[in-house]
Design a protein that fits this description.
- The chain has three helices and no strands.
- It is mostly helical and 83 residues long.
Length: 83
């Protein structure tokens, strides 16, 4: 009985983590594109760099949670430029 309840909670948290990862992917795709454009122009504002760093580290942290660490090997999550 407890095993079923624990499995259900694990499944719910895994789905929520997966959705959060997908949202971060969408944000990072846009931010990375802007970051590369600004970097090519030679100037990346500090506030923009901080925002990119924050989103990247949040994306990385979401992939390393207990309920989602295995998703890296099952789903094809994109790699982004490390800050």
């Amino acid at each position: 009985m407890y095993g079923i309840i624990l499995a259900m909670f694990y499944g719910v948290f895994s789905v929520l983590s997966y959705n959060s990862i997908q949202i971060k992917i969408e944000k990072l795709e846009i931010l990375e594109e802007e970051y590369l454009k600004k970097e090519a122009q030679g100037e990346v504002p500090y506030s923009f760099r901080q925002q990119y760093n924050k989103e990247y580290h949040e994306y990385d942290r979401l992939q390393n949670r207990l309920q989602s660490f295995w998703m890296k090997w099952v789903f094809d999550f994109p790699e982004f430029k490390k800050p």
